[in-house]
Each structure stands twice: as structure tokens, then as C-alpha cells.
Specification:
GO terms for molecular function: pyridoxal phosphate binding. The chain is of the alpha/beta class. It has helices at residues 2-10, 30-54, 71-79, 90-99, 117-121, 135-144, 172-182, 201-204, 214-230, 244-249, 259-262, and strands spanning 16-17, 20-21, 61-65, 84-87, 105-108, 126-132, 152-157, 190-196, 235-237, 254-257. The strands form two sheets. The chain has an eight-stranded parallel sheet with strand order 9-8-7-6-5-4-3-10. It has a two-stranded antiparallel sheet with strand order 1-2. The longest helix is centred in the first third of the chain and has 25 residues, at 30-54. The radius of gyration is 19 Å and the shape is globular.
């Protein structure tokens, strides 16, 4: 696959990768393609090994977090077969969505302001908004979704570490009200997919990956409580570079990896889409 991708770039047919004919929209550098595909494959292998070790029989999505990285990096991985990308900033996601193939499934994983919900809802191929932390935001996404566009799958963000600087809900009444909205007839354009958390730095950098991460245990507890009360089966989005092995073992269906795939990010002021 890697050799095919590089050869395709060199011959000007970057869309021809493996058995599929893909249509590259953004040009990219051959050397960068080789580096990036190798890094992605290494991370994917580590994820697969962690799943095998934990005896996981569910699908675990490796979400490539592409925030502050150029559209060309995303195009490289797209041509390698990747379709799920995570972005943290609304305007950056909007601009990238205009440049890149429309069958990309964008995940918004950053802090979401209520006044940005309408802008995000207009992106036809936004598929997931994973950081819903208020009923108001869920309703705004629902009300402003582009007519005819796919339903947006949503995660409720839970603050499992009780850190004041982190977003997310921890109040049972607010969490249950949000779940009730997602399950109501009113919620036609948004659908509850699962729960998301970002573990504390200390928990996420434990020396022993075989010791349970306390924040992940808390999220799993919330899943059990909500599943039992509402008769549903939520997914969990937890785990990044430092703690994905714990996350997989503790029930995550999605791990969010950025730097290990794309390399060190530039400062936001220096980031360029093109």
C-alpha cells in the first residue's frame, strides 16, 4: 500500500491506492507521504496489538486527530484509506471540509461554543460531535442541521476528574436531561452515540498500563448507570497516546491519536491549512 501510494504521487495519480480509485484533491509531498503513512501504520499496529492483548471483540476506531495540521496531511491518509479525522476548532474544520473529499467523516472533538453550533451543523459531512456538555448546545445543533444532511452522532462529554479547567458534565440531573433529549422525538437531526472523557494528566501517565485508569473507570460507571436507566448501549471515547492501552482494556470504542501520527503540532498562530 505504501509503495503504491508513493508511486501514485510520483506519476501524478495519487488517487490510485490499492484496489480503490480515489481522487486526490490536495497535492502533497512524496517524502511526507512516506513518513506519515509509516507513522499511521505503526500506531494502528500498536492499537491492534492492545486490542488483541485485552481480548477485545468490539470495533475500536483509531481517530486521527489532525488539528493544526495541513490539509495535505489529511489527503495523504485519505489516499491510504483513512476516513475518520478529528478536529478541535470549528473554523479550521469548516475550511478543511471545503478542500478535502466529501466522504471524509469529520469528528469535532474540541470545546464547542453555543454560538458555533450553527456553523458546525452546516458542514454536510460532519458526522460526529463528541463534546456535547449542555442541553442548549445539543438543541442548537439539532435545530440548525442542514436539511437532508446525515444525522450528527453525538457524545456527551463527562468531566471524570473534577478538574475545573476541563469541560464536561458531572451532575447527574444535567446528564440525564441531556440523554432524555437525545432519546426524544424532538431530536431528529442529532443522535446519542456515547460518552467522552479526557483523563487527568496523572491518571493518563501511570507507569503501569495494567492498572485501571480511575477516570476511565468513572466513565464506564456512567455508561452502566445510563444504559440501565434508559435501556441503551452507549459507546465510550477515551484514550490518547499516553493511555490508549488502558482505555482499550477498560472498554473504549475509540482512541484519539494526534501527535504520534502527525508529529509535533505548530503553534495555533503558525498553523496553515494549505
Amino acid at each position: 500500500m505504501l509503495k503504491a501510494a508513493i508511486r501514485a504521487v510520483e506519476t501524478g495519480k495519487a488517487g490510485l491506492v490499492g484496489p480503490r480509485l480515489l481522487h486526490s484533491m490536495v497535492p502533497y509531498d512524496v517524502n511526507r507521504a512516506q513518513e506519515l503513512i509509516a507513522r499511521y501504520n505503526e500506531v494502528k499496529s500498536s492499537c491492534d496489538a492492545a486490542c488483541e492483548k485485552a481480548g477485545v471483540n468490539r470495533e475500536v476506531l483509531l481517530l486521527a486527530v489532525s488539528k493544526l495540521k495541513p490539509a495535505s496531511d489529511i489527503q495523504i491518509l485519505y489516499d491510504h484509506g483513512v476516513r475518520h479525522f478529528g478536529e478541535n476548532y470549528v473554523q479550521e474544520l469548516i475550511e478543511k471540509s471545503k478542500l478535502l473529499p466529501q466522504d471524509i467523516q469529520w469528528h469535532f472533538i474540541g470545546g464547542l461554543q453555543t454560538n458555533k453550533c450553527k456553523d458546525l451543523a452546516k458542514v454536510t459531512n460532519i458526522r460526529y460531535v463528541e463534546t456535547i456538555d449542555s442541553l442548549k448546545k445539543a438543541k442548537k445543533l439539532n435545530e440548525t442541521r442542514v436539511e437532508g444532511a446525515p444525522v450528527i452522532l453525538c457524545n456527551i462529554q463527562i468531566n471524570t476528574s473534577d478538574e475545573s479547567q476541563k469541560s464536561g458534565l458531572s451532575n447527574e440531573k444535567e446528564i440525564f436531561e441531556l440523554v432524555e433529549f437525545f432519546l426524544s422525538p424532538e431530536s431528529k437531526n442529532v443522535q446519542l452515540e456515547g460518552l467522552l472523557t479526557i483523563g487527568s494528566w496523572d491518571s493518563s501517565h501511570s507507569d503501569d498500563p495494567n492498572v485501571d485508569n480511575a477516570d476511565f473507570s468513572t466513565l464506564a460507571h456512567w455508561k452502566s448507570k445510563i444504559d440501565e436507566k434508559f435501556g441503551i448501549n452507549l459507546k465510550l471515547s477515551m484514550g490518547m497516546s499516553a493511555d490508549f492501552k488502558q482505555a482499550v482494556r477498560q472498554g473504549s470504542s475509540e482512541i484519539r491519536i494526534g501527535t504520534d501520527i502527525f508529529g509535533t503540532r505548530p503553534a495555533k498562530a503558525d498553523a496553515k491549512i494549505i
